[in-house]
Amino acid sequence: MPAPPRDIRRLAFQVLFQLDARGERDALAIRDAALADESSGLVERDRERAIDLAQAAFAARAEADRAMMELAPTWPSHRQAAVDRAILRLAHYEMTSGRTPPKIAVNEAVELAKEFSTDKSPAFVNGLLDKVLKRVLAQTAAAPEAPTTQE
Q1: Is residue 108 part of a domain?
Q2: Which residue has better confidence, 150 or 53?
Q3: Tens digit of each residue's pLDDT (9 = 90 or more) over 93-126
């Protein structure tokens, strides 16, 4: 039985945090450690899913950082707490990739901030991701629908 998405996301956040802290040069070691660590309670397949999610978010970090800079120019990524930065990057990736419904991604990011960051972080994460949410929803509404074929 697959693990709850929240548990997979939690591990993805932890892997993403490590990738941000240690860099790409240690990506294989981080991957191996996450795969070997059974303390998360996830089966290997779910740990793989979490790692893949983290790596995708890490690869898209420049896009997430640009968006955050546009939406909160006084809080560029280098000024954000590392935990908050990882949470924001993960949520941004999930929202913009279509991997997770945007409102769920926001809620899950706030929950991660409550669990892993400071008392002020959930409000910061929520406020910034609310701006991302509005942008994503506007883009979705403006996207042309796929043409339908009539026979």
Answers
A1: yes
A2: 53
A3: 999 999 999 999 999 999 999 999 999 999 999 9
Give this prediction's pTM.
0.91
CATH number for the domain that contains residue 48? 1.10.940.10
C-alpha to C-alpha distances, 6 to 36, 61, 98, 102, 121, nearest whole angstrom: 20, 21, 17, 14, 19
How long, in residues, is the chain? 151
Output the DSSP codes for 59-102.
HTHHHHHHHHHHH-TTS-GGGS-HHHHHHHHHHHHHHHHTSS-H
Expressed as residue numbers, the domain containing 65 is 5-138
Is 148 domain-assigned?
Answer: no
